[in-house]
Design a protein that fits this description.
By secondary structure, the protein is α/β, with parallel strands linked by helices. It has helices at about 25-30, 45-50, 60-65, 80-85, 100-110, 130-150, 175-190, 200-210, 235-250, 270-275, 325-340, 355-360, 370-375, and strands spanning about 1-5, 30-35, 55-60, 70-75, 90-95, 110-115, 160, 165, 170-175, 190-195, 210-215, 255, 280-285, 305, 310-315, 340-345, 345, 360-365, 365. It has an eight-stranded mixed beta sheet. Helix 10 links the parallel strand 12 (about 255) and strand 13. Helix 6 packs parallel to helix 7.
């Protein structure tokens, strides 16, 4: 079986699906690795490093013509879609719930679509395949560095001959993988860290890393399925938001990480809350996307300064800004997933397996994942997202 690693073409994307160190287990399993020329350049991985690890460097035309499976980080563009052929498999972060029309297009071409962002996160053996978590870890780290770079003061308490600098007050909203990494990073930089999540079980996790958990009087248990938080009702949101606004106003830095798969991110920082913050405060909205963000004023991919001097950063792809580490993590995830589906040197889809059943979005000319199928039904054709070039 031939597995090809495509060069990413999405703007700003510097990651690569496999790194040279990840090739050993794949080649041992009887897989021949093809690398599109220059695929690793953005992650500081030259073609020669892949050759020395046992891969063959080929052109884009050769890769799509020869590969049985195409590995990638981002979903394919329209131009890349045209290169795929019936019977070929594509594996990556395909975002089926945000772009169901792309899944339908892949199915119509007879392509097998396998998405890492559909990994069942509560399944213990799938942890090595959980690319969302590995990339969120990178993003949480980088978000704190972005905030520290933008903030015009020290993060730690510093006593010098010239005087004493007070530590920054930093709030993390959302205590998932990204939030926990952000807490740890901010604490290492010396900030006074508070954290909040609608799931009460995250309190112990936040405190174990040195953060103070924010307890709201209006707090409601919003634990949802699959390890995510459920979406709050309008009444629950209004009650909590009013109380949370007071906490936000006292912060120097706010980092938001809350996302609900396939839906618009919940608004946690309202315009009113931003208006009450001090001049010089910084917000880094990790949920920023074309659907919106956790901050009401966030503009995805932009940095803006409000009239009262608050800087709001809306990064769209933080992991890509640390391509070497992010690619190394991602390569382990995608390799683990692929090896679980390869038997006797061929891709074998066993739908009795929980991972396979969850991650195969389309096969046999049809979209088979139930959540994506539902979005493609007539009443759901207005679902958010669309095929992007």
């Amino acid at each position: 079986m031939k597995v090809g690693v495509a060069k990413e073409t999405a703007p700003g994307e510097r990651r690569v699906a496999l790194v040279p160190e990840s090739l050993g287990k794949l080649t041992t399993a009887g897989i021949e690795i093809l690398i599109e020329r220059g695929a690793g350049d953005g992650a500081f991985l030259p073609d020669q490093a892949y050759v020395e690890a046992g891969a063959r460097v080929v052109s884009a035309d050769e890769l799509y013509a020869q590969a049985d499976v195409v590995l990638r980080v981002q979903k394919p563009s329209v131009a890349e879609m045209a290169r795929l052929r019936a019977g070929q498999a594509v594996v990556g972060l395909l975002q089926p719930l945000l772009d169901p029309s792309l899944m339908q297009a892949l199915a119509s071409k007879g392509v097998i679509a396998i998405s890492l962002d559909a990994i069942p996160r509560t399944l213990s053996r799938a942890q090595t395949m959980d690319a969302l978590s590995s990339q969120a870890n990178v993003g949480g780290y980088k978000a704190v560095l972005l905030a520290a770079n933008e903030y015009g003061r020290y993060l730690p308490l510093l006593t010098t001959a010239a005087g004493t600098a007070k530590p920054a007050n930093l709030l993390i909203l959302g205590i998932g993988v990204a939030g926990l990494q952000a807490i740890g990073t901010a604490r290492r930089l010396g900030a006074v860290v508070k954290a909040y999540d609608v799931r009460p079980e995250t309190k112990e996790q936040a405190e174990s890393l040195g953060a103070t958990f924010v307890m709201l009087k209006t707090a409601i248990d919003a634990t949802g399925a699959g390890g995510y938080a459920r979406e709050l009702t309008p009444e629950e949101r209004a009650a909590q938001q009013a109380e949370l606004n007071g906490v936000i106003a006292s912060m120097d830095i706010v980092i938001t990480t809350a996302q609900v798969p396939g839906r618009r991110p919940p608004v946690l920082v309202t315009a009113a809350a931003v208006g009450a913050m001090k001049s010089g405060s910084v917000i880094v909205d990790m949920a920023a996307s074309e659907l919106g963000g956790n901050c009401e004023l966030t503009k995805a991919g932009e940095t803006l300064v409000t009239d009262n001097g608050v800087t709001i950063i809306g990064p769209e792809n933080l992991p890509a800004s640390m391509p070497a580490s992010a690619s190394a993590f991602f390569a382990r995830n995608i390799s683990a997933l692929l090896l679980g589906m390869v038997k006797d040197g061929a891709l074998t889809l066993d739908f009795a397996d929980e991972v396979t059943a969850a991650t195969v979005i389309a096969t046999g000319g049809a979209v088979i994942q139930e959540a994506t199928k539902k979005l493609l039904e007539p009443a759901g054709t207005a679902a958010p997202g669309g095929t992007r070039a």
